[in-house]
Amino acid sequence: MEKIISLAFDFGASSGRAIVSTFDGEKIELEEVHRFLNEPVIMGSHIYWDTFRLFHDLKQGLKKASSKFGKIHSIGIDTWAVDYGLLDENDNIIGMPIHYRDTRTEGMMEKVKQNMSLENIYDITGIQFMELNTVYQLMADKKFRPHIIEKAKTLLLMPDLFNYYLTGKKYNEYTNASTTQMLDAKSKKWSKELIEKLDLPYDILQEIIEPGNIIGNLTKEVQAELEVDSIPVVAVGSHDTASAVCGAPLEGNDSVYLSCGTWSLLGIESKKPIISGDSARYNFTNEGGVEDTIRFLKNINGLWLLQQLRKSWSERVEEIGFPDIIKAVLQVENKDFIIDPNHESFMAPHNMIEAIQNYCVENNQGKPEKLGELAIAAYNGLTSEYKKVVECIEEIAGESISTINMVGGGIQDKFLCQQTANVTGKKVLAGPIEASVLGNIVMQLKAIGAIETLEQGRKIIKNSFETEKFLPEK
């Protein structure tokens, strides 16, 4: 068969990549053609995404891919969730999209409760309560940027926004829309009841498009600027976790996935939402997946902790890399320090060293001083949280879990993989690293008719990339 060339854009919270997939009918090969920074910009008291620069880099990636590979059969974009851009009546962007770690949403959950109970919101959406969710960002915009909300005619989540600039078509892709806490989990449509009770503008929301459908082709303007042919742009699982789960070759119904990146996303794939008293009590979320699935999971503050520890140590003491952190952990004598990774003090601290030290002191653990002590506190916090979440899933789903399929960049940290196996007592299968890219590619291949099902796509991934096994050590 003709080799199928697909182009996946994978935007993380700190960097983005343009990766080309070559599919020969049996295996997928990946090649990175462009990598770029995704550095938020602090202006005044707010944190913004450098949206125009990101779109510029997206176009550079497309140009490089076309120049090297010739014909591109399809394009797909996945990014982080919850953040958005607003367009006016002339489709001009109003203001710059604000970062989910911005503090403007503080107190917005309490404000929402004045109009609608949290229990009612969870019954409708099935989404974990976090103040960074889109619904609280919109409430904050309504309070602090009312002129922008009044002028807004279109809301596009970040991948929707980039897709619009490529194609001129406006949609809200399902998997990302589900994270807003404004989508009805059962009907997969915007909840008019919720949105109107919160007095938010309903008309700015767009038609929902499912993963595996073609959004449109590159506009003539983009084609002319980049000197490329008309290429279909596909709605993939545009929330990067949805793509990562799509790209995870799960072993069976007794497996959970753990997507390790800036965030740790741990959960199961379900055919329907799991909305119950227990799921609400444990604050689990029901996010949309590909192929009519639900990602029943828990969001856990992830490698952000170690990324920021590395940054703080490099600024304060000496320049270090992640291998230096792991070496320090292996040499540390006091391995008992532990933090709660989801504590509010670790959401956006100015200095991660101080944040970890303050937490440990306040919780009567003493003060970690050495790099290894600080890092082990983060590792212990993460793996202990993984254990709790797996046990909650077993309780809620009524099934025993045997395997954790870890995917994403975090699996390069072998210490984290082994500790996860040790602490949870479960077998860990690590791989593939590029799960989000591969999930993105699989939905592109399905949209253009190169494969037929998600199951087929996962078999191709398993055939193309190896996994590494970690067993609990006694």
TrEMBL record:
Protein's UniProt keywords contain Iron: no
Write out the GO MF terms: ATP binding; rhamnulokinase activity
Q: Which PANTHER family match?
A: GLUCONOKINASE, SUGAR KINASE
Q: Which Pfam families does its entry note? A: FGGY_C (PF02782), FGGY_N (PF00370)
Residue ranges annotated for the Carbohydrate kinase FGGY C-terminal domain, each copy included = 257-447
Matching InterPro entries? ATPase_NBD, Carb_kinase_FGGY, FGGY_C, FGGY_Carb_Kinase, FGGY_N, Rhamnulokinase
The family assignment reads:
Belongs to the FGGY kinase family.
| Domain Carbohydrate kinase FGGY N-terminal, residue spans | 6-246
The species this protein was found in = Clostridium grantii DSM 8605
Q: Could you tell me the keywords of this UniProt record?
A: ATP-binding, Kinase, Nucleotide-binding, Rhamnose metabolism, Transferase
Q: What is this protein called?
A: Rhamnulokinase
Q: Which GO terms describe its biological process?
A: rhamnose catabolic process
